[in-house]
From TrEMBL:
Name the record gives this protein: 15-cis-zeta-carotene isomerase, chloroplastic
Pfam family, one: NnrU
Entry GO MF terms: 9,15,9'-tri-cis-zeta-carotene isomerase activity
Membrane spanning residue stretches: 94-113, 136-155, 167-188, 208-229, 334-353
Main location class: membrane
Chain ranges of the NnrU domain: 137-356
Origin: domain of life: Eukaryota
Topology with respect to the bilayer: Multi-pass membrane protein
InterPro entries xrefs: NnrU_dom
CC terms in the record's Gene Ontology section: chloroplast; membrane
Listed GO biological process terms: carotene biosynthetic process
Keyword tags: Isomerase, Membrane, Transmembrane, Transmembrane helix
Length: 365
């Protein structure tokens, strides 16, 4: 599960208080008569297990197929991102998801959040006893979360072989989630404790710019995790090789979304704690770019190399230089339930800012 810490900040004044290479298989297809040459093309592709879902779409150009015209076909070696068919959904799966979510939230509250029974406050107090500066505490919390989160992700292949995909997902989430909550809560409660470096909140247009940037950041942050049933281990978790939707814009949407969010909120808050949080979070996601590509290369081999050539880390770079040509109906790749859900959650999170601020403050972390 590709994940990130999304720190929720209300726009309010300060409160008063190494795997062996898999065998090579051949993927063969014929170009249509509309192409420049009619021929059969074979591409050697490494598949560790089953090959990713292969889709045939009419595109403006075929990135790995070579030069082609407006009517050419491209074979996608990756998966169609955010595909959701209501007819394929099972009611029992979503019942299991709801039950699991409830159990997880109860356990998280009892074992970590509740100051009378959990260890969250002791964890924060322990770090504060070592570092007196709120900037250093903020950065330390981010680094601890990043080390655990990325460390477990790096050992995913080995861990899944030992204990299985579902058990490893439980271990991964059960370890990462409490640390993420601590980091978020500490940021909300201490975001105005640092040294004020600039003050732009009263400048006309800044609030609107920060709001718009935050909204856009959500659209990048979460679409790398499309299947909630996998997140909860109801469906068997997989390391996906996505290729459509937002992946055409950037291969690492979480990094882009986190960077946009951090920069926007650092401009809004304008102090040293916000700078420390942004440095930690952006640094973590930049490492995730390298680590994510490495893990996909190990799992999918040549299939990932094809997707890598068609996409870019920097948003729109592959589109601008012609490696990624968008299909005429590209907008349809976004008119899907997961993207609509992200949009709804984004709006909901904005209006829930006062509630999140109040809940965090009551913890006194």
């Amino acid at each position: 599960m590709a994940s990130s810490i999304l720190l929720s900040l209300p726009f309010l004044p300060p409160p008063s208080t190494s795997n062996p290479k898999p065998p090579i298989s051949k993927l063969s297809f014929s170009l249509s008569s509309h192409s420049i040459h009619r021929k059969t093309l074979s591409i050697p592709i490494h598949f560790a297990q089953k090959p990713p879902q292969i889709l045939r779409r009419r595109l403006i150009a075929g990135a790995s197929v070579g030069e082609s015209d407006d009517n050419s076909d491209e074979i996608l070696v990756g998966e169609d991102a955010a595909a959701f068919e209501l007819s394929s959904q099972k009611l029992t799966s979503w019942v299991y998801f709801t039950v699991i979510l409830g159990v997880v939230l109860f356990a998280l509250n009892f074992l970590w959040i509740d100051n009378s029974t959990g260890f969250g406050k002791n964890f924060i107090t322990g770090i504060e006893s070592v570092f007196q500066s709120p900037e250093v505490v903020m950065l330390s919390l981010t680094v601890i979360f990043a080390a655990v989160h990325s460390g477990l992700a790096s050992f995913r292949n080995v861990g899944e072989k030992i204990i299985g995909e579902r058990a490893f997902r439980v271990l991964f989430a059960g370890t990462s989630l409490p640390l993420a909550v601590s980091t978020v809560v500490y940021f909300i409660n201490h975001r105005y404790d640092g040294i004020q470096l600039w003050q732009l909140q009263s400048v006309p247009g800044v609030h609107q710019l920060v709001w718009l940037s935050s909204f856009i950041s959500f659209l990048f942050l979460y679409p790398s995790t499309f299947n909630l049933l996998e997140v909860a281990a109801v469906d068997k978790p997989k390391l996906h090789l996505w290729e459509t939707g937002i992946m055409r814009i950037t291969r690492h949407p979480q990094m882009v979304g986190q960077a946009v969010w951090c920069l926007a909120h650092t401009v809004w808050i304008g102090n040293s704690v916000a700078v420390a949080a942004s440095i930690g979070l952006i640094g973590h996601h930049l490492f995730g770019v390298w680590n994510g590509d490495r893990r996909l290369a190990l799992r999918y081999g040549d299939a990932f190399e094809i997707v890598k050539k068609r996409t870019s880390v920097i948003p729109f770079a592959a589109i601008i230089d012609g490696r990624q040509r968008l299909p005429k109906d590209y907008y349809k790749e976004f008119i899907r339930v997961p993207y609509i859900a992200v949009t709804a959650v984004t709006l909901g999170a904005y209006f829930a800012h006062p509630l999140m601020q109040s809940a965090s403050f009551r913890l006194h972390w």
